[in-house]
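Closing statement on the iron/sulfur cluster sub-project.
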Amino acid sequence: MNERNDTSHMKILEKIAGIAASERNDYLMQAKKSGKKVIGFFCSYVPEEIIHAAGFIPYRMRAVASSGTEKGDIYFSSLNCTFVRHCFDKALKGDFDFLDGIVFLNGCDHTRRLYDNWRHADIPPEFRYMFVAPHKVGTTAEKRFSGEIEVFKKELERYFNVTISDETLAASIKLYNRRRELLQSIYEAGKSKEVPLRGSEFLRLMLALTAMPVEDSIALLEEFKGEIQGRSTARPGDLRIFLASGCVEEPGHLELIEELGASIVANNICLGTRNFDLAVSEDDEPVPSLAKRYLYHLSCPRMMNTSRERLAYMQDTCREFQVDAIIAEKLKFCDLWGGELFLYRKESRKLGIPLLALERELYGGSSGQMRTRIQAFYEQVRNRKSTADDLFCAAGDDYQAGGKN
Ligand code: SF4
Protein backbone atom coordinates (compact mmCIF):
# COMPACT_ATOMS: atom_id res chain seq x y z
CA MET A 1 0.00 0.00 0.00
CA ASN A 2 1.50 3.33 -1.01
CA GLU A 3 1.80 6.31 1.34
CA ARG A 4 -0.99 8.34 -0.29
CA ASN A 5 -3.54 5.53 0.06
CA ASP A 6 -2.38 4.89 3.57
CA THR A 7 -3.05 8.53 4.52
CA SER A 8 -6.43 8.72 2.77
CA HIS A 9 -7.83 5.53 4.30
CA MET A 10 -6.61 6.69 7.72
CA LYS A 11 -8.47 9.95 7.14
CA ILE A 12 -11.75 8.24 6.35
CA LEU A 13 -11.35 5.86 9.30
CA GLU A 14 -10.77 8.84 11.59
CA LYS A 15 -13.83 10.55 10.17
CA ILE A 16 -15.93 7.43 10.86
CA ALA A 17 -14.48 7.13 14.36
CA GLY A 18 -15.49 10.75 15.01
CA ILE A 19 -19.08 10.12 13.88
CA ALA A 20 -19.28 6.91 15.94
CA ALA A 21 -17.95 8.44 19.14
CA SER A 22 -20.92 10.54 20.19
CA GLU A 23 -24.70 10.24 20.10
CA ARG A 24 -24.92 13.14 17.67
CA ASN A 25 -22.77 14.04 14.69
CA ASP A 26 -22.42 16.79 12.07
CA TYR A 27 -24.50 14.97 9.42
CA LEU A 28 -27.36 14.56 11.85
CA MET A 29 -27.18 18.05 13.28
CA GLN A 30 -26.96 19.55 9.79
CA ALA A 31 -30.08 17.63 8.76
CA LYS A 32 -31.86 18.78 11.94
CA LYS A 33 -30.95 22.38 11.15
CA SER A 34 -32.52 22.02 7.73
CA GLY A 35 -35.78 20.97 9.39
CA LYS A 36 -35.52 17.17 9.22
CA LYS A 37 -37.00 15.16 12.07
CA VAL A 38 -35.01 12.38 13.72
CA ILE A 39 -36.74 9.27 15.06
CA GLY A 40 -34.81 7.00 17.41
CA PHE A 41 -35.44 3.27 17.35
CA PHE A 42 -34.27 0.25 19.30
CA CYS A 43 -33.27 -3.02 17.68
CA SER A 44 -32.87 -4.51 14.19
CA TYR A 45 -36.55 -5.55 14.01
CA VAL A 46 -37.89 -2.02 13.46
CA PRO A 47 -38.28 -1.37 9.69
CA GLU A 48 -36.29 1.82 9.16
CA GLU A 49 -37.73 2.24 5.67
CA ILE A 50 -41.14 3.22 7.12
CA ILE A 51 -39.54 6.02 9.17
CA HIS A 52 -37.51 7.17 6.18
CA ALA A 53 -40.51 7.11 3.84
CA ALA A 54 -42.31 9.43 6.28
CA GLY A 55 -39.55 11.96 5.55
CA PHE A 56 -37.60 11.38 8.80
CA ILE A 57 -34.14 10.13 9.72
CA PRO A 58 -34.11 6.78 11.54
CA TYR A 59 -31.54 6.81 14.33
CA ARG A 60 -30.37 3.60 15.98
CA MET A 61 -30.41 4.09 19.75
CA ARG A 62 -27.12 3.58 21.55
CA ALA A 63 -25.48 4.46 24.85
CA VAL A 64 -22.16 5.72 23.43
CA ALA A 65 -20.28 8.19 25.62
CA SER A 66 -22.30 7.10 28.65
CA SER A 67 -20.70 8.17 31.89
CA GLY A 68 -22.58 5.84 34.25
CA THR A 69 -25.94 4.45 35.28
CA GLU A 70 -26.58 6.37 38.53
CA LYS A 71 -29.74 8.11 37.32
CA GLY A 72 -30.90 5.12 35.25
CA ASP A 73 -30.63 2.92 38.34
CA ILE A 74 -33.38 4.93 40.04
CA TYR A 75 -35.77 3.29 37.56
CA PHE A 76 -34.02 0.03 36.72
CA SER A 77 -32.87 -2.65 39.10
CA SER A 78 -29.30 -3.85 39.15
CA LEU A 79 -30.67 -7.10 37.73
CA ASN A 80 -31.36 -5.32 34.43
CA CYS A 81 -28.67 -5.40 31.78
CA THR A 82 -26.30 -2.46 31.49
CA PHE A 83 -27.44 -1.64 27.95
CA VAL A 84 -30.87 -0.48 29.10
CA ARG A 85 -29.50 1.13 32.25
CA HIS A 86 -26.94 3.20 30.33
CA CYS A 87 -29.50 4.18 27.66
CA PHE A 88 -32.03 5.27 30.24
CA ASP A 89 -29.41 7.16 32.20
CA LYS A 90 -28.58 9.13 29.06
CA ALA A 91 -32.27 9.74 28.40
CA LEU A 92 -32.73 11.18 31.90
CA LYS A 93 -29.72 13.43 31.37
CA GLY A 94 -31.24 14.84 28.18
CA ASP A 95 -28.66 13.31 25.81
CA PHE A 96 -31.44 12.35 23.37
CA ASP A 97 -33.07 15.78 23.32
CA PHE A 98 -32.51 16.00 19.55
CA LEU A 99 -35.04 13.21 18.91
CA ASP A 100 -38.52 13.98 17.57
CA GLY A 101 -39.85 10.52 18.28
CA ILE A 102 -38.75 7.18 19.58
CA VAL A 103 -39.74 3.63 18.65
CA PHE A 104 -39.29 0.87 21.23
CA LEU A 105 -39.38 -2.84 20.52
CA ASN A 106 -40.38 -5.92 22.48
CA GLY A 107 -36.86 -7.22 21.94
CA CYS A 108 -36.63 -8.60 25.45
CA ASP A 109 -38.26 -7.80 28.79
CA HIS A 110 -35.48 -5.35 29.65
CA THR A 111 -35.93 -3.23 26.52
CA ARG A 112 -39.67 -3.43 26.99
CA ARG A 113 -39.26 -1.81 30.39
CA LEU A 114 -37.49 1.09 28.67
CA TYR A 115 -40.83 2.00 27.12
CA ASP A 116 -42.66 1.87 30.46
CA ASN A 117 -40.02 3.90 32.28
CA TRP A 118 -39.65 6.45 29.48
CA ARG A 119 -43.38 7.14 29.68
CA HIS A 120 -43.48 7.06 33.45
CA ALA A 121 -40.61 9.57 33.74
CA ASP A 122 -42.24 11.52 30.88
CA ILE A 123 -38.95 12.01 29.06
CA PRO A 124 -39.25 13.75 25.68
CA PRO A 125 -39.91 13.20 22.86
CA GLU A 126 -43.66 13.04 23.12
CA PHE A 127 -43.99 10.54 20.28
CA ARG A 128 -43.16 7.22 21.98
CA TYR A 129 -44.25 4.13 20.15
CA MET A 130 -44.02 0.44 21.01
CA PHE A 131 -43.47 -1.69 17.91
CA VAL A 132 -44.44 -5.28 18.66
CA ALA A 133 -42.58 -7.75 16.47
CA PRO A 134 -43.40 -11.47 16.50
CA HIS A 135 -41.06 -13.79 18.39
CA LYS A 136 -41.47 -16.59 15.83
CA VAL A 137 -41.17 -16.91 12.07
CA GLY A 138 -43.83 -18.51 9.85
CA THR A 139 -46.79 -17.51 7.72
CA THR A 140 -48.94 -16.41 10.67
CA ALA A 141 -46.04 -14.30 11.96
CA GLU A 142 -45.58 -12.74 8.50
CA LYS A 143 -49.21 -11.59 8.49
CA ARG A 144 -48.86 -10.38 12.07
CA PHE A 145 -45.70 -8.44 11.19
CA SER A 146 -47.33 -6.87 8.11
CA GLY A 147 -50.27 -5.80 10.28
CA GLU A 148 -47.92 -4.25 12.84
CA ILE A 149 -46.09 -2.32 10.10
CA GLU A 150 -49.42 -1.00 8.78
CA VAL A 151 -50.43 0.19 12.26
CA PHE A 152 -47.01 1.83 12.78
CA LYS A 153 -47.24 3.53 9.38
CA LYS A 154 -50.72 4.90 10.16
CA GLU A 155 -49.59 6.16 13.55
CA LEU A 156 -46.63 8.05 12.04
CA GLU A 157 -48.97 9.53 9.41
CA ARG A 158 -51.53 10.56 12.00
CA TYR A 159 -49.18 11.99 14.60
CA PHE A 160 -46.87 13.89 12.25
CA ASN A 161 -49.51 14.67 9.65
CA VAL A 162 -47.56 13.11 6.77
CA THR A 163 -48.39 10.61 4.02
CA ILE A 164 -46.36 7.49 3.32
CA SER A 165 -47.18 6.42 -0.21
CA ASP A 166 -46.19 3.11 -1.83
CA GLU A 167 -43.92 5.09 -4.16
CA THR A 168 -41.96 6.80 -1.38
CA LEU A 169 -41.77 3.51 0.48
CA ALA A 170 -40.41 1.75 -2.60
CA ALA A 171 -37.78 4.49 -2.97
CA SER A 172 -36.76 4.09 0.70
CA ILE A 173 -36.49 0.32 0.26
CA LYS A 174 -34.15 0.85 -2.70
CA LEU A 175 -31.89 3.13 -0.65
CA TYR A 176 -31.68 0.77 2.31
CA ASN A 177 -31.04 -2.18 -0.01
CA ARG A 178 -28.14 -0.23 -1.54
CA ARG A 179 -26.70 0.35 1.92
CA ARG A 180 -27.09 -3.36 2.71
CA GLU A 181 -25.40 -4.33 -0.54
CA LEU A 182 -22.39 -2.07 0.16
CA LEU A 183 -22.07 -3.28 3.73
CA GLN A 184 -22.32 -6.91 2.67
CA SER A 185 -19.52 -6.51 0.16
CA ILE A 186 -17.27 -4.79 2.76
CA TYR A 187 -18.08 -7.53 5.29
CA GLU A 188 -17.33 -10.29 2.78
CA ALA A 189 -13.91 -8.79 2.12
CA GLY A 190 -13.11 -10.21 5.58
CA LYS A 191 -12.91 -13.64 3.95
CA SER A 192 -9.54 -12.69 2.50
CA LYS A 193 -6.25 -13.31 4.28
CA GLU A 194 -5.56 -9.55 4.19
CA VAL A 195 -8.57 -8.62 6.38
CA PRO A 196 -9.04 -5.09 4.92
CA LEU A 197 -11.12 -4.02 7.93
CA ARG A 198 -10.75 -5.09 11.53
CA GLY A 199 -13.85 -5.99 13.58
CA SER A 200 -13.43 -2.93 15.80
CA GLU A 201 -13.33 -0.69 12.71
CA PHE A 202 -16.41 -2.42 11.32
CA LEU A 203 -18.29 -1.71 14.56
CA ARG A 204 -17.32 1.98 14.33
CA LEU A 205 -18.59 2.01 10.76
CA MET A 206 -21.94 0.55 11.87
CA LEU A 207 -22.25 3.02 14.75
CA ALA A 208 -21.66 5.87 12.32
CA LEU A 209 -23.97 4.67 9.52
CA THR A 210 -26.91 4.03 11.81
CA ALA A 211 -26.75 7.58 13.17
CA MET A 212 -26.86 9.60 9.94
CA PRO A 213 -29.15 10.11 6.94
CA VAL A 214 -29.09 6.99 4.75
CA GLU A 215 -28.29 9.08 1.64
CA ASP A 216 -25.09 10.36 3.32
CA SER A 217 -24.26 6.90 4.63
CA ILE A 218 -24.37 5.46 1.09
CA ALA A 219 -22.05 8.21 -0.20
CA LEU A 220 -19.69 7.58 2.72
CA LEU A 221 -19.75 3.81 2.14
CA GLU A 222 -19.02 4.17 -1.56
CA GLU A 223 -16.01 6.33 -0.78
CA PHE A 224 -14.97 4.00 2.04
CA LYS A 225 -15.19 0.87 -0.10
CA GLY A 226 -12.80 2.40 -2.62
CA GLU A 227 -10.39 3.54 0.09
CA ILE A 228 -10.00 0.17 1.78
CA GLN A 229 -9.45 -1.78 -1.41
CA GLY A 230 -6.05 -3.45 -1.23
CA ARG A 231 -5.69 -2.58 2.46
CA SER A 232 -4.31 -5.26 4.79
CA THR A 233 -4.60 -5.28 8.58
CA ALA A 234 -3.46 -8.89 9.02
CA ARG A 235 -0.48 -9.52 11.28
CA PRO A 236 1.47 -12.75 11.23
CA GLY A 237 -0.03 -15.28 13.63
CA ASP A 238 -3.35 -13.42 14.12
CA LEU A 239 -6.24 -15.73 14.92
CA ARG A 240 -9.45 -15.31 12.93
CA ILE A 241 -12.40 -14.83 15.26
CA PHE A 242 -16.18 -15.12 14.92
CA LEU A 243 -17.85 -12.86 17.48
CA ALA A 244 -21.39 -13.60 18.66
CA SER A 245 -23.04 -11.14 21.00
CA GLY A 246 -26.05 -8.95 21.61
CA CYS A 247 -25.68 -5.32 22.61
CA VAL A 248 -21.99 -4.57 22.12
CA GLU A 249 -21.21 -1.03 21.06
CA GLU A 250 -17.73 -0.29 22.42
CA PRO A 251 -15.06 -0.43 19.69
CA GLY A 252 -12.51 -0.37 22.55
CA HIS A 253 -13.71 -3.78 23.72
CA LEU A 254 -13.29 -5.25 20.23
CA GLU A 255 -9.87 -3.58 20.02
CA LEU A 256 -8.87 -5.46 23.16
CA ILE A 257 -9.90 -8.78 21.58
CA GLU A 258 -7.89 -7.88 18.47
CA GLU A 259 -4.81 -6.30 20.00
CA LEU A 260 -4.12 -9.51 21.92
CA GLY A 261 -3.44 -11.28 18.63
CA ALA A 262 -6.59 -11.70 16.54
CA SER A 263 -8.89 -10.22 13.92
CA ILE A 264 -12.65 -10.37 14.28
CA VAL A 265 -13.47 -11.36 10.71
CA ALA A 266 -17.16 -12.30 11.13
CA ASN A 267 -19.98 -11.74 13.59
CA ASN A 268 -23.54 -12.10 14.65
CA ILE A 269 -23.99 -8.99 16.83
CA CYS A 270 -26.75 -6.37 17.12
CA LEU A 271 -24.73 -3.74 15.25
CA GLY A 272 -23.41 -6.24 12.72
CA THR A 273 -24.54 -8.69 10.08
CA ARG A 274 -28.18 -8.68 11.14
CA ASN A 275 -28.51 -5.20 9.68
CA PHE A 276 -27.61 -6.10 6.13
CA ASP A 277 -27.75 -9.86 5.50
CA LEU A 278 -31.02 -9.91 3.56
CA ALA A 279 -32.46 -7.46 1.02
CA VAL A 280 -36.11 -6.38 0.86
CA SER A 281 -37.82 -7.57 -2.32
CA GLU A 282 -38.27 -4.64 -4.72
CA ASP A 283 -40.69 -6.58 -6.93
CA ASP A 284 -43.55 -7.19 -4.54
CA GLU A 285 -45.82 -5.05 -2.37
CA PRO A 286 -43.68 -2.97 0.00
CA VAL A 287 -45.27 -3.73 3.38
CA PRO A 288 -45.37 -7.57 3.11
CA SER A 289 -41.86 -7.45 1.61
CA LEU A 290 -40.61 -5.48 4.60
CA ALA A 291 -42.31 -7.92 6.95
CA LYS A 292 -40.55 -10.84 5.24
CA ARG A 293 -37.14 -9.21 5.34
CA TYR A 294 -37.31 -8.11 8.98
CA LEU A 295 -38.73 -11.45 10.05
CA TYR A 296 -36.27 -13.66 8.18
CA HIS A 297 -33.02 -11.70 8.46
CA LEU A 298 -30.27 -13.29 10.53
CA SER A 299 -31.97 -13.56 13.89
CA CYS A 300 -30.94 -12.99 17.47
CA PRO A 301 -32.11 -15.12 20.40
CA ARG A 302 -35.26 -13.01 20.86
CA MET A 303 -36.62 -15.23 18.07
CA MET A 304 -37.87 -18.50 19.46
CA ASN A 305 -37.88 -20.88 16.52
CA THR A 306 -34.77 -19.91 14.55
CA SER A 307 -31.89 -21.15 16.70
CA ARG A 308 -31.08 -23.85 14.11
CA GLU A 309 -30.67 -21.19 11.43
CA ARG A 310 -28.41 -19.09 13.68
CA LEU A 311 -26.21 -22.08 14.41
CA ALA A 312 -26.12 -22.98 10.71
CA TYR A 313 -25.06 -19.39 9.97
CA MET A 314 -22.29 -19.69 12.54
CA GLN A 315 -21.16 -23.00 11.04
CA ASP A 316 -21.20 -21.77 7.41
CA THR A 317 -19.51 -18.50 8.34
CA CYS A 318 -16.75 -20.23 10.29
CA ARG A 319 -16.02 -22.32 7.20
CA GLU A 320 -16.24 -19.48 4.65
CA PHE A 321 -14.22 -16.99 6.73
CA GLN A 322 -11.75 -19.67 7.87
CA VAL A 323 -12.42 -18.93 11.50
CA ASP A 324 -9.99 -20.33 14.10
CA ALA A 325 -12.10 -19.67 17.19
CA ILE A 326 -15.40 -18.24 18.44
CA ILE A 327 -15.90 -15.66 21.15
CA ALA A 328 -19.50 -15.65 22.39
CA GLU A 329 -20.52 -12.99 24.88
CA LYS A 330 -23.44 -11.98 27.01
CA LEU A 331 -24.12 -8.99 29.19
CA LYS A 332 -24.81 -9.80 32.84
CA PHE A 333 -28.49 -10.60 33.45
CA CYS A 334 -29.21 -11.17 29.77
CA ASP A 335 -31.13 -14.45 29.77
CA LEU A 336 -31.60 -14.52 26.02
CA TRP A 337 -27.87 -14.56 25.32
CA GLY A 338 -27.33 -16.82 28.32
CA GLY A 339 -29.40 -19.50 26.60
CA GLU A 340 -27.69 -18.81 23.30
CA LEU A 341 -24.25 -19.34 24.79
CA PHE A 342 -25.35 -22.80 25.92
CA LEU A 343 -26.34 -23.66 22.33
CA TYR A 344 -23.13 -22.19 20.92
CA ARG A 345 -21.07 -24.18 23.33
CA LYS A 346 -22.75 -27.45 22.33
CA GLU A 347 -22.46 -26.65 18.63
CA SER A 348 -18.83 -25.58 18.80
CA ARG A 349 -18.01 -28.91 20.46
CA LYS A 350 -19.71 -30.75 17.64
CA LEU A 351 -17.79 -28.72 15.08
CA GLY A 352 -14.49 -28.87 16.96
CA ILE A 353 -14.11 -25.09 16.97
CA PRO A 354 -12.70 -23.62 20.20
CA LEU A 355 -15.06 -21.25 21.97
CA LEU A 356 -14.55 -18.70 24.70
CA ALA A 357 -17.71 -17.53 26.45
CA LEU A 358 -17.53 -14.19 28.20
CA GLU A 359 -19.90 -12.39 30.51
CA ARG A 360 -19.45 -8.67 30.78
CA GLU A 361 -20.97 -5.26 31.52
CA LEU A 362 -21.51 -2.62 28.85
CA TYR A 363 -18.93 0.13 29.40
CA GLY A 364 -17.50 -2.02 32.17
CA GLY A 365 -13.96 -1.29 31.01
CA SER A 366 -11.35 -3.81 29.91
CA SER A 367 -10.71 -5.60 33.14
CA GLY A 368 -7.37 -7.28 33.70
CA GLN A 369 -9.29 -10.51 34.20
CA MET A 370 -10.88 -10.26 30.74
CA ARG A 371 -7.48 -9.59 29.19
CA THR A 372 -5.93 -12.56 30.96
CA ARG A 373 -8.74 -14.91 29.90
CA ILE A 374 -8.56 -13.86 26.27
CA GLN A 375 -4.77 -14.12 26.21
CA ALA A 376 -4.83 -17.59 27.76
CA PHE A 377 -7.55 -18.68 25.33
CA TYR A 378 -5.49 -17.57 22.33
CA GLU A 379 -2.51 -19.44 23.65
CA GLN A 380 -4.59 -22.60 23.94
CA VAL A 381 -6.03 -22.14 20.45
CA ARG A 382 -2.54 -21.75 19.03
CA ASN A 383 -1.37 -24.86 20.84
CA ARG A 384 -4.42 -26.67 19.61
CA LYS A 385 -3.72 -25.57 16.06
CA SER A 386 -0.39 -27.29 16.32
CA THR A 387 -1.56 -30.31 18.33
CA ALA A 388 -5.16 -30.58 16.98
CA ASP A 389 -6.48 -31.06 20.54
CA ASP A 390 -10.09 -30.23 21.42
CA LEU A 391 -10.62 -27.07 23.37
CA PHE A 392 -13.72 -25.65 24.88
CA CYS A 393 -14.41 -22.93 27.34
CA ALA A 394 -17.57 -21.98 29.22
CA ALA A 395 -18.56 -18.66 30.79
CA GLY A 396 -17.08 -18.48 34.25
CA ASP A 397 -15.24 -21.79 33.83
CA ASP A 398 -11.67 -22.37 32.90
CA TYR A 399 -11.30 -23.70 29.41
CA GLN A 400 -9.94 -27.19 29.02
CA ALA A 401 -7.61 -28.49 26.41
CA GLY A 402 -8.01 -32.02 25.16
CA GLY A 403 -11.23 -32.68 27.07
CA LYS A 404 -14.82 -31.75 27.66
CA ASN A 405 -16.25 -29.52 30.35
S1 SF4 B 1 -28.32 -7.37 26.30
FE1 SF4 B 1 -29.91 -8.92 26.53
S2 SF4 B 1 -31.18 -8.17 28.20
FE2 SF4 B 1 -30.00 -6.42 27.46
S3 SF4 B 1 -31.29 -5.44 25.92
FE3 SF4 B 1 -29.96 -6.86 24.84
S4 SF4 B 1 -31.17 -8.77 24.68
FE4 SF4 B 1 -32.13 -7.48 26.28
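Residues 81, 83-84, 107-108, 110-111, 246-247, 331, 334, 336-337 surround iron/sulfur cluster (CB under 6 Å). With this model delivered, the sub-project is considered complete and its resources will be redirected to Aim 3.
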